[in-house]
Design the sequence.
C-alpha cells in the first residue's frame, strides 16, 4: 500500500522514525517520504545516513499548525510519531507535554482532514491505559482525538497502535543497564517487582504496517507482546556482561509498578485479530466496523497487563539476542 505514495512522518529523526524509514525503503517503493522534525542536526545526520533522493526533510514542529498543514499537502499516509515520551520529563514540564502530545496531535488531525490525507496512523503507548502519569494522560487524550477524528470526514481514516517499551529506542533501559555494567555498576532499578512489556524496533514498525494495511478507521491495534520483570532483564544482562551490584532506587514520580495494554473496560471491545495482534473497537463502533470484524474471536482475558504472561530467563535471553543486545 506504500508503493508510489507520499508518506509523512512526524518525529522522523527519532529511533522509531529512522527504523520506519529504513523499512519503508527496503520493503516498498514510496514516491516520497517527508521527514518532519524540529532538530536540524538530527536531520543532517539522517540525510547522510540514508542518502536517498526519495527522502524530503522539513524542519517543523507539530505544535505549529501552519507548518504541519504545509508539510502534509498532497500526502497519502501520515505516521504520527512525534511526542514527548519520558515520564519524569513530562511530570516536570506538564505544559510542554500537553503542547506536543495533545496540541500536536490535534494539529495532525486538522491538517489531515484539510488536506484529504488517506490514512493517519498514531503511535500510542501502554501508559495511555488507566494512566497514572501526565505522559500517559496526554497520550490517552491523543488516542481519543485520533479515534474521534473518524467522525469528522469520510476521506481520511484514523487508527491507533499501542506498544510497550521498545528495546533500543531513545532512552531505553536496556542500553542504559549495559552501560552501567560496563562502567562497573551499580545497576539502578526502581523496584524489583516492576514489570514491563518489551518489543524490538522492527516489531514496533511491523505493528505500524499491520495497522496501516488492515484498519478501516477507528480501531486500536495492540501487539500480543511478552513482558518480564525488570530485575530479570538485569540478571540476564549480568550473566552476559558481568555481575555488578543492583541498587533499588524506588519508583520515580508517575511510574507504575505494572503497565497495561488493554484495560478491563476495553477487554469487552477487544478481539483477537490473529496470533500476533489484538484489535480494540471504539465503544461507539458503527456497523461498518462491527461487520468488518464480526468473524473474530473475543479477547480471552479480563485485561492485558504486563503481569499477564511473564517471560523466564531463557525467553528474555532470546528476546535480547533478537534485539541485538547479546
Sequence:
Amino acid at each position: 500500500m506504500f508503493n508510489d505514495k507520499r508518506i509523512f512522518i512526524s518525529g522522523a529523526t527519532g529511533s522509531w522514525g529512522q527504523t520506519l524509514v529504513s523499512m519503508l525503503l527496503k520493503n516498498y517503493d514510496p514516491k516520497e517520504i517527508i521527514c518532519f522534525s524540529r532538530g536540524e542536526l538530527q536531520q543532517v545526520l539522517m540525510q547522510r545516513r540514508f542518502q536517498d533522493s526519495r527522502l524530503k526533510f522539513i524542519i517543523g514542529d507539530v505544535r505549529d499548525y501552519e507548518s504541519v498543514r504545509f508539510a502534509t499537502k498532497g500526502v497519502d499516509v501520515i505516521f504520527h510519531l512525534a511526542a514527548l515520551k519520558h515520564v519524569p520529563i513530562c511530570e516536570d514540564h506538564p505544559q510542554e507535554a500537553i503542547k506536543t502530545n495533545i496540541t500536536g496531535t490535534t494539529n495532525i488531525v486538522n491538517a489531515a482532514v484539510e488536506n484529504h490525507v488517506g490514512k493517519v496512523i498514531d503511535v500510542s503507548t501502554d501508559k495511555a491505559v488507566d494512566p497514572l502519569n501526565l505522559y500517559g494522560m496526554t497520550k490517552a487524550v491523543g488516542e481519543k482525538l485520533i479515534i474521534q477524528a473518524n467522525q469528522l470526514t469520510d476521506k481520511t481514516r484514523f487508527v491507533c497502535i499501542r506498544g510497550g517499551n521498545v528495546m533500543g529506542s531513545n532512552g531505553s533501559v536496556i542500553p542504559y543497564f549495559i552501560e552501567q555494567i560496563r562502567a562497573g555498576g551499580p545497576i539502578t532499578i526502581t523496584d524489583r517487582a516492576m514489570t514491563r512489556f518489551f518489543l524490538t524496533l522492527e516489531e514496533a514498525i511491523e505493528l505500524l504496517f499491520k495497522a496501516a494495511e488492515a484498519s478501516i478507521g477507528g480501531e486500536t491495534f495492540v501487539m500480543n507482546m511478552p513482558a518480564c520483570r525488570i530485575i530479570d532483564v538485569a540478571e540476564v544482562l549480568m550473566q552476559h556482561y558481568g555481575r555488578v551490584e543492583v541498587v533499588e532506587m524506588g519508583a520515580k514520580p508517575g511510574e507504575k509498578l505494572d503497565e497495561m495494554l488493554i484495560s478491563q473496560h476495553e477487554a469487552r471491545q477487544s478481539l483477537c485479530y490473529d496470533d500476533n495482534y489484538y484489535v480494540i473497537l471504539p465503544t461507539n463502533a458503527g456497523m461498518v466496523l462491527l461487520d468488518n470484524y464480526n468473524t473474530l474471536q473475543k479477547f480471552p482475558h479480563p485485561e492485558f497487563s504486563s503481569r499477564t504472561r511473564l517471560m523466564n530467563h531463557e525467553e528474555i535471553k532470546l528476546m535480547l539476542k533478537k534485539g541485538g543486545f547479546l
Q: What stands out?
A: The two ends are 35 Å apart (CA to CA). Residues 197 and 225 are 7 Å apart (CA to CA). The longest helix spans residues 94-114. The chain has twelve helices and 17 strands.
